[in-house]
TrEMBL record:
Species, as recorded: Durusdinium trenchii
Catalytic activity: 2 reduced [2Fe-2S]-[ferredoxin] + NADP(+) + H(+) = 2 oxidized [2Fe-2S]-[ferredoxin] + NADPH
EC number(s) per entry: 1.18.1.2
Protein name: ferredoxin--NADP(+) reductase
Top EC group: oxidoreductase
């Protein structure tokens, strides 16, 4: 990526995608950046993370010449990591010294995004924490949350759980002081493990309870899903460099998400199509490429952020495409269960064509099975073109165009 391109990010999210004035005909930067970090730098952060105020200002994401980047990597500054010659926020808060944030009301969604489906684990929530500007992050990163516990082996507090960040760098309220997550509540009834014996399970915040059964309630997901505004939350991170957006505003972004794997995609879409930070001076968007989201969920009642996706589709019909696979309600023409790869197979030629363009990036997040699903979908077309899908995917990965976070 041209060094000039990255300079846009140096200017912060309010100017992300902007061409740096000093560079000749540069490609503007696509990736967002925490934008109010200059005024949000407090003594707490400098102390806790061991980084000075200057590093926490707009320079946090500064583009640097390769040599400087190498030096920075060699020096190993605390709180930052050099990725493709740029510094990004990195583990500002550790499990031993987490940031204590507060839960805030979300201004777009009710906390629960899904409706009961009959499954014990039907609920997914959208939760927003106030971090006071002390936990800057960029789109595609994750944070850790420490629940009070007890954990699986009785540990108190519990070990950290990672969550992909679902808000863009500026946060849902665009103050750069909040971070949002999309969390599925883990509830298992009469399964292999139990932390509630018969008679012990009580209604959670959404009213779900199984007092007649042995129940396992996920330690951290239940802690988060039961939070109410004003509650305290212990945050670590940010971390993650696999799912970062490219700098090029003309890049094409293909997004594949199963369930809560939608979290990083939501953060991208906010930057691309919603935030002031992504608006251009001509009234359009700084993002000039195409974005195509494929989302896989079990029920239509579990289609996460569908309202936002429909809004983008209506407002940006030439730039945003949205398809979903509802596995337990839809089938394809051959009568097969509709998984995300089944849906993508309907557009295999078009997607294959897009992937030949070096401006196209694929982002995949959610269940592990998605990767083999891609092979199922694109294996035949790759073969038709004299290629092996696994090799093609490997080459895309090497070119930093194939981003996978599944487990
Ligand atoms: C990079 C990354 C990003 C993530 N992003 C998200 C996200 O955006 N949203 C989201 O909802 N989740 C996300 N996760 C998953 C998240 O980190 C948690 O794993 C998830 O919330 C479950 O945690 P929990 O504490 O609720 O469940 P846990 O209490 O950890 O339970 C998890 C499982 O452990 C099993 N178990 C219980 N006891 C035992 C035992 N003794 N031995 C073995 N197994 C046992 C349970 O049956 C249960 O299925 C992400 C994970 C990673 C790695
Ligand atoms: N950064 C990360 O790594 C990250 C972030 C967020 C979430 N996650 C993980 O992503 C997963 C999402 O879980 P969830 O409970 O939120 O999802 P969910 O609501 O259960 O939805 C998952 C969907 O994927 C379908 N599916 C099952 N097997 C599949 C396969 N082989 N290929 C394609 N689709 C398949 C499911 O169908 P059926 O159930 O009908 O078979 C369902 O429709 C979890 O494992 C979560 O921990 C990872």
């Amino acid at each position: 990526m041209a060094q000039a391109a990255a300079v846009g990010a140096l200017l912060g999210a309010s100017t992300a995608f902007l061409a740096p004035s000093a560079a000749p005909a540069p490609a503007p930067a696509l990736r967002g950046a925490p934008h109010s970090s200059r005024d949000s730098t407090g003594p707490g952060l400098a102390g806790a993370a061991g980084v000075g105020a200057a590093a926490l200002g707009l320079g946090l994401l500064a583009a640097r010449p390769a040599a400087t980047a190498c030096r920075a990597a060699a020096v190993k500054k605390k709180g930052v990591k050099v990725v493709h010659g740029k510094e990004i926020p990195w583990n500002l808060f550790s499990p031993k010294a987490p940031y204590q944030g507060k839960v805030v009301e979300n201004d777009v969604h009710k906390q629960t995004l899904t409706e009961p489906t009959g499954d014990a684990n039907w609920e997914t929530t959208h939760v927003t924490f106030d971090h006071g500007g002390k936990v800057p992050y960029i789109e595609g990163q994750s944070i850790g949350v420490i629940a009070p516990g007890p954990d699986k082996k009785g540990e108190q507090p519990a070990k950290i759980r990672l969550y992909s960040i679902a808000s863009s760098a500026v946060g849902d309220d665009q103050t750069s002081k909040t971070v949002s997550l999309c969390v599925k509540r883990v509830v298992e009834v009469d399964g292999k493990f139990a932390n509630r014996q018969k008679g012990e399970d009580k209604p959670d915040k959404a009213g779900t309870a199984y007092p007649e059964n042995q129940v396992y309630r996920g330690v951290c997901s239940n802690h988060i899903c039961d939070m109410t505004p004003g509650d305290e939350v212990l945050i670590t991170g940010p971390t993650g460099a696999e799912m970062l957006l490219p700098e090029d505003p003309e890049a094409n972004i293909i997004m594949l998400a199963t369930g809560t794997g939608i979290a990083p995609m939501r953060s991208y879409l906010r930057l691309l199509f919603h935030d002031k930070a992504g608006a251009s001076s001509d009234g359009g968007r700084k993002f000039k490429g195409k974005a195509w989201l494929f989302m896989g969920v079990p029920y239509s009642k579990s289609l996460l952020y569908d309202d936002e996706h429909q809004t983008y589709k209506k407002a940006f019909p030439d730039q945003f495409r949205y398809d979903y696979a509802v596995s337990r309600e839809q089938k394809n023409a051959a009568g097969q269960k509709m998984y995300i790869q089944t849906k993508m197979a309907e557009y295999a030629e078009e997607l294959w064509e897009m992937m030949q363009d070096e401006k196209t990036h694929v982002y995949m997040c959610g269940l592990k099975g998605m990767e083999s699903g891609m092979a199922e979908c694109f294996g035949p077309i790759a073969e038709k073109n004299g290629l092996v899908w696994a090799e093609f995917a490997k080459a895309m990965k090497k070119a930093d165009r194939y981003h996978v976070e599944v487990y």
